[in-house]
């Protein structure tokens, strides 16, 4: 195996610690040309689609990649921001705010905060190379998914581990598995709902919509379904809701197989047919607004509900750059950085450099 070329090293250079946020990903533009490579990378991941590879290859390349890019491009165009994809824009902002807050709390710590996307750009390989060039010898991987799933958290870890396998001098790595029941995350989500209700009043029903997965993932041992339900229950308890005032549903079903139920679309139509006066929807599994929240829920979900006979529909935005969420993310990060935040000893580094030169080092 040929290892990647290591960055040039100078003895006495302080080691740094990196915090790497990893999100799902996004195409570079809302066009069919940009969607095709993005969808190919995403849907070729065996963690995402667990269909035998030869069969799936024919379906993906023969049908899906010839039809879906154009349709998906139109959906992305409907939510695209002036600065780019909503997911990328919000993740970028979250990264900058986390970096600022960490620098205020531990000003002397040699920290680098960055983000990468599992699919698309900035890619995990490119960002890891950038961190290596900055002499980051310790990396904390923070998946931007509160609930663990093999198709989200695990595949992000897979890609990072795969890149470390190519490195001769691999950094230390820590990963965060989940934070679906983290008190600060729950509190920020509940307060986000309260703030909306303060301005707009309360609904008849609060729908908590999580991204769906095929039903077989639960049957094979993926804890995602259970973690979503725990998150929903804790949010409802924080809001003081009774069991008939909220529902937990799952969105984004793809294909003909059974997925986790109840489905968000079917539930919204059911509530509409019942002439529900007002429904509010939140998506607690998404930390940043994206196609699945802004187009699938805020646009399509509203149409489904109201076309079936429902009244008011409110989509409550994701946590995005809320200060209480950034504080929660900061605490989560610091809790997992323990032992890695010591400031470098300049004298010891210089002594080490001189000893290395005495032993023949050129730098």
TrEMBL record:
Location comes to: Cytoplasm
Instruction: Report the CDD domains cross-referenced here.
Output: Ferrochelatase_C (cd00419), Ferrochelatase_N (cd03411)
Q: Which Gene3D superfamilies does UniProt cross-reference here? A: 3.40.50.1400
Asked if the Swiss-Prot or TrEMBL record annotates the protein with the keyword Electron transport, the reply is no
Instruction: Name its GO BP terms in alphabetical order.
Output: heme biosynthetic process
Q: Which InterPro entries match?
A: Ferrochelatase, Ferrochelatase_AS, Ferrochelatase_C, Ferrochelatase_N
Q: What is its EC number?
A: 4.98.1.1
First-tier enzyme category under EC: lyase
- Quote the record's binding site residues for Fe(2+): 211, 292
Q: Which pathway, metabolic or otherwise, does it act in?
A: Porphyrin-containing compound metabolism; protoheme biosynthesis; protoheme from protoporphyrin-IX: step 1/1
GO CC, sorted alphabetically, is: cytoplasm
Q: List the catalytic activities from the record.
A: Fe-coproporphyrin III + 2 H(+) = coproporphyrin III + Fe(2+); heme b + 2 H(+) = protoporphyrin IX + Fe(2+)
* Domain of life, per lineage: Bacteria
Alphabetized, the UniProt keywords read:
Cytoplasm, Heme biosynthesis, Iron, Lyase, Metal-binding, Porphyrin biosynthesis
Q: What is its main location?
A: cytoplasm
Name a GO molecular-function annotation. ferrochelatase activity
Q: Name the PANTHER family for this protein.
A: FERROCHELATASE, FERROCHELATASE, MITOCHONDRIAL
Give the family, as the similarity comment puts it: Belongs to the ferrochelatase family.
Question: What function is annotated for this protein?
Answer: Catalyzes the ferrous insertion into protoporphyrin IX.
Q: What is this protein called?
A: Ferrochelatase
* Organism per entry: Ferriphaselus amnicola
């Amino acid at each position: 195996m040929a290892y990647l070329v290591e960055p040039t090293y100078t003895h006495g250079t302080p080691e740094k610690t990196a915090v790497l946020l990893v999100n799902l990903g996004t195409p570079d533009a809302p066009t069919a040309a940009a969607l095709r490579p993005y969808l190919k990378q995403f849907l070729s991941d065996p963690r995402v689609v667990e269909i035998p590879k030869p069969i799936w290859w024919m379906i993906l390349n023969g049908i899906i990649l010839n039809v879906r890019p154009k349709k998906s491009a139109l959906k992305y165009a409907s939510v695209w921001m002036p600065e780019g994809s909503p997911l990328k824009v919000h993740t970028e902002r979250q990264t900058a705010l986390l970096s600022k807050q960490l620098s205020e709390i531990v000003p002397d710590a040699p920290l680098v905060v960055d983000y990468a996307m599992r699919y698309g750009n900035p890619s995990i390989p490119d960002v890891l190379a950038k961190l290596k060039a900055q002499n980051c010898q310790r990396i904390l991987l923070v998946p931007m998914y509160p609930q663990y799933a093999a198709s989200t958290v695990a595949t992000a870890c897979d890609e990072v581990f795969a890149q470390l396998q190519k490195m001769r001098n691999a950094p230390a790595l820590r990963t965060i598995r989940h934070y679906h029941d983290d008190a600060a995350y729950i509190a920020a989500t509940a307060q986000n709902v309260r703030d909306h209700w303060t301005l707009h009043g309360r609904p008849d029903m609060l729908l908590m919509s999580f991204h769906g997965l095929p039903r077989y993932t639960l049957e094979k041992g993926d804890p995602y379904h259970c973690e979503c339900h725990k998150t929903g229950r804790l949010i409802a308890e924080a809001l003081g809701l009774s069991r008939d005032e909220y529902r937990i549903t799952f969105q984004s079903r793809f294909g003909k197989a059974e997925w986790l139920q109840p489905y968000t679309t079917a539930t919204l139509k059911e509530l509409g047919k019942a002439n529900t006066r007002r429904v509010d929807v939140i998506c607690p599994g998404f930390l940043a607004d994206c196609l699945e929240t802004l187009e699938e829920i805020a646009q399509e979900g509203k149409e489904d509900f109201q076309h079936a006979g429902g009244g008011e529909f409110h989509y409550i935005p994701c946590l995005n750059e809320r200060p209480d969420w950034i504080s929660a993310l900061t605490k989560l990060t610091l809790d997992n950085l323990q032992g890695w935040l010591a400031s470098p000893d300049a004298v010891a580094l210089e002594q080490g450099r001189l000893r290395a030169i005495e032993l023949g080092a050129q730098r």
